[in-house]
């Protein structure tokens, strides 16, 4: 439906219209002031060049539209006593959101030096996009925000994540028309097929079409309105249009649109909760069309600005050096009539404050935007309940992720009433062997079901959609509003969310420095179906590089774990599910894997992060090792232990130390990462002068990068994935990349002084097996019997 700005039905009295317009004008004035001014905030004297910042940074174009939305959300929150959160998709609109939080008082409560008077207004203006101040985007520093301005395309999935399991929460989501062109945003429209009207809150998308991006027209703003309606209806929404540029008419239309949307949401929730309605709701969406840079300069230097891309950032440039621009800026600021909006001390007048809700209902004060305040500890059982028995290392096998699935199923059961844990993943929960969770919760689903479907549940908390972007956005929104979760994904395809995790890490790092931000549950990844066991899917599914990407990020916020078996995976999972303010990456296999450590041993080993497996080596503490065989990852661990066994049999006089690394950041210096080892610890583990042959799960140069400052780095030789893959047998994958046990034995012989001559025959035998392997798999399609049937017999 469309709301005609000239419609006679009017939800606003004249007094309400006056106060809404006053609030909106005040917010616009404050937004412009933040971009331009560093003094004279109330224009109590004529504007002079020294009142203007020397560097003009910020974005005006989207700000008046965001101010309009904030003003009208205030009205309905106050009138209806709503608990609400807003996701500001056009994050460049930082001036608008900061301005509104200052008007409502939440900004001053968090930053007491930015008072609600002329002195505080001056600080508010000066700090914006200024050294030592605050960013130009909506950011962690902004009260009421859970969405960084750089996260273009993720607003709607964040909004749904916030709404899941928050039945009393309204999540408004402003979607910029540029953002609406991104793939992540396009996929996230389908989130309404997963929103449970009984247990979840409501999401009200507000598609803001102001016509332009930074330099080009916006697609959705240029297609005919009937075509846009068809698109939105196809997504499952009922559109409500608000279009105009005359402020009073737009205020009336926006108020009517808000009331219509919220009445519709209330009716849909009532039908599901009280009347038991089972059909999927068609939720409203507001389409707001206002000019870009609305109320700003109409023309600058003879060129149109308002309503064009020229208003996107700073409509008037070089104001200090351009008298005409300075004159236009003053006229622009005075057009809002600040003397009517603020008293002589710079405090907002009563008309400006009238629409604002009270207390925690204010958008800048909602606890849902500071989710750590709402967070509760997960009820986790003792790990012995899930541990696999290990009487002897390397004899029995388990699928590690299947074992973990039992733990996650119990977490689902334990949170069934409080509903604050979700498992997300792109259609891979069962593929990744986590299907035990279905016994505790089905898969969230509001669309059509067929008799052949399994585990679909209108109230489920397992989330599966074949869009890694949407999974990531859901989970981020869920965590930032005070809940827990885990993201399970094929290792090769988690790269799809590289840029999203970038922003989340930055958010966490910044939040840690803000005393008022309470810690939130960590973003936990389980990466499985990994590079070494994608032999059936082939080269396209073989990429272990996400770990490299993560370890480029802030050491304060990132952790990477490579548990080698089921019990170590349980220990690591228990740790990360209890942690706060991290991005934790766990890489673990789903295929049968040897059990190496008992549960008690696993706890100690994981707490240590890296350690000697004395039972696997031959040094026996009698003397220093001749060589260190190190490993990180489940398949590299198996190959190192097989190599250690070959060395024990073929070169029994050689003193071999086996070191396993679970926490990959342990290799870094302590000065560079909180989990890093001191030089003393590192040298004691790896020695300073003995060869180290390191079998690593991913790209070998990462290990070199982490350890390059160590004294013994010159002795370090790393084997890992070399971007050589295909559809083949499991063991052929490690052979192709020179990570196999036979190659590792050859590396030892090549690097231990004196062995090249003395062990030449052993080396030749190793090479012969590799050659025999090559012929065997082509003849039989399976790995060599001595590989396929191998077990540890140390």
TrEMBL record:
Keyword line: Lyase, Thiamine pyrophosphate
Residue ranges occupied by any Xylulose 5-phosphate/Fructose 6-phosphate phosphoketolase N-terminal domain in the UniProt entry: 12-373
E.C. number: 4.1.2.-
Ranges of residues in domain Xylulose 5-phosphate/Fructose 6-phosphate phosphoketolase C-terminal: 590-792
Top-level EC class as recorded in UniProt: lyase
Cofactors, names only: thiamine diphosphate
GO biological process: one example: carbohydrate metabolic process
PROSITE patterns assigned: PHOSPHOKETOLASE_1, PHOSPHOKETOLASE_2
Protein name: Probable phosphoketolase
Native source organism of the sequence: Streptomyces humidus
Phylogenetic classification of the source organism: Bacteria, Bacillati, Actinomycetota, Actinomycetes, Kitasatosporales
């Amino acid at each position: 439906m469309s709301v005609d700005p000239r419609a006679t039905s009017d939800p606003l009295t004249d007094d309400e219209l006056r106060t809404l317009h006053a609030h909106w004008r005040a917010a616009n004035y404050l937004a412009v002031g933040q971009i331009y001014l560093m003094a004279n905030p109330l224009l109590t004297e004529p504007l002079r060049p020294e009142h203007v910042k020397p560097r003009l940074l910020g974005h005006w174009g989207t700000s008046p539209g965001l101010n309009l939305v904030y003003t009208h959300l205030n009205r309905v929150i106050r009138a209806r006593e709503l608990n609400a959160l807003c996701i500001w998709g056009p994050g460049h609109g930082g001036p608008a959101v900061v301005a509104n939080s200052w008007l409502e008082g939440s900004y001053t409560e968090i930053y007491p030096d930015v008072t609600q008077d002329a002195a505080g207004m001056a600080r508010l203006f000066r700090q914006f996009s200024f050294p030592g101040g605050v960013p130009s985007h909506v950011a962690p520093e902004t009260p009421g925000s859970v969405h960084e301005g750089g996260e273009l395309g993720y607003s709607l999935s964040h909004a749904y994540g916030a709404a899941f399991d928050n039945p009393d929460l309204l999540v408004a989501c402003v979607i910029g028309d540029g953002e609406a062109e991104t793939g992540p945003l396009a996929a996230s429209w389908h989130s309404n097929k997963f929103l449970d009207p009984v247990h979840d809150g409501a999401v009200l998308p507000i598609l803001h079409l102001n016509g332009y991006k930074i330099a080009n027209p916006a697609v959705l703003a240029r297609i005919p309105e009937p075509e846009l309606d068809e698109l939105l209806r196809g997504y499952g929404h009922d559109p409500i249009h608000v279009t105009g540029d005359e402020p009073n008419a737009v205020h009336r239309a926006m108020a009517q649109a808000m009331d219509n949307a919220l009445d519709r949401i209330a009716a849909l929730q009532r039908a599901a909760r009280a009347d038991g309605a089972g059909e999927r709701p068609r939720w409203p969406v507001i389409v707001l069309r206002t000019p870009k840079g609305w109320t700003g300069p109409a023309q600058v230097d003879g060129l149109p600005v308002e309503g064009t891309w020229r208003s996107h950032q700073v409509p008037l440039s070089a104001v200090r050096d351009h008298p005409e621009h300075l004159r236009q800026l003053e006229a622009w600021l005075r057009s809002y009539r600040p003397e009517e909006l603020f008293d002589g001390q710079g405090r907002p007048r009563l008309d400006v404050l009238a629409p604002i809700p009270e207390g925690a209902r204010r958008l800048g004060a909602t606890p849902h935007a500071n989710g750590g305040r709402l967070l509760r500890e997960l009820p986790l059982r003792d790990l012995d309940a899930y541990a696999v028995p290990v009487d002897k290392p390397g004899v029995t096998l388990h699928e590690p992720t299947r074992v973990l699935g039992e733990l996650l199923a119990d977490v689902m059961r334990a949170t069934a009433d409080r509903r604050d844990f979700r498992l997300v993943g792109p259609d891979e929960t069962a593929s990744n062997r986590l299907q035990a969770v279905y016994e505790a919760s089905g898969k969230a689903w509001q669309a059509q079901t067929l008799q052949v479907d399994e585990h679909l549940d209108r109230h489920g908390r397992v989330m599966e959609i074949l869009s890694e972007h949407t999974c990531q956005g859901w989970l981020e929104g869920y965590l930032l509003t005070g809940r827990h979760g885990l993201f399970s994904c094929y290792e090769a395809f988690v790269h799809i969310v590289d840029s999203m995790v970038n922003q989340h890490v930055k958010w966490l790092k910044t939040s840690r420095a803000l005393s008022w931000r309470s810690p939130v549950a960590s973003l936990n990844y389980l990466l499985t179906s990994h590079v070494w066991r994608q032999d059936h899917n082939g080269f396209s599914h073989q990429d272990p590089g996400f770990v490299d990407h993560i370890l480029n990020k802030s050491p304060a916020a990132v952790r990477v774990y490579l548990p080698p078996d089921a019990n170590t995976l349980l220990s690591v999972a228990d740790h990360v599910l209890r942690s706060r303010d991290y991005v934790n990456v766990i890489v673990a296999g789903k295929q049968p894997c040897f059990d190496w450590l008992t549960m008690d041993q696993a706890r100690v080993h994981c707490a240590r992060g890296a350690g000697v497996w004395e039972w696997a080596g031959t040094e026996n503490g009698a003397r220093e090792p001749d060589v260190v065989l190190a490993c990180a990852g489940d398949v590299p661990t198996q190959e190192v232990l097989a190599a250690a066994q070959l060395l024990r049999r073929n070169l029994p006089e050689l003193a071999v130390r086996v070191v396993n690394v679970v926490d990959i950041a342990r290799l870094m210096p302590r000065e560079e990462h909180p989990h890093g080892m001191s030089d003393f610890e590192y040298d004691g583990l790896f020695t300073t002068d003995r060869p180290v042959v390191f079998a690593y799960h991913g790209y070998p140069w990462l290990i070199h990068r982490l350890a390059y400052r160590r004294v013994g780095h010159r002795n370090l030789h790393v084997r890992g994935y070399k971007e050589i893959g295909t559809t083949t047998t499991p063991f052929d994958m490690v052979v192709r990349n020179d990570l196999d046990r036979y190659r590792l034995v050859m590396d030892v012989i090549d690097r231990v002084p004196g062995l090249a001559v003395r062990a030449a025959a052993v080396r030749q035998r190793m090479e012969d097996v590799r050659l025999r392997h090559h012929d065997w798999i082509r003849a039989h399609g399976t790995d060599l019997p001595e590989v396929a049937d191998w077990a540890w017999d140390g």
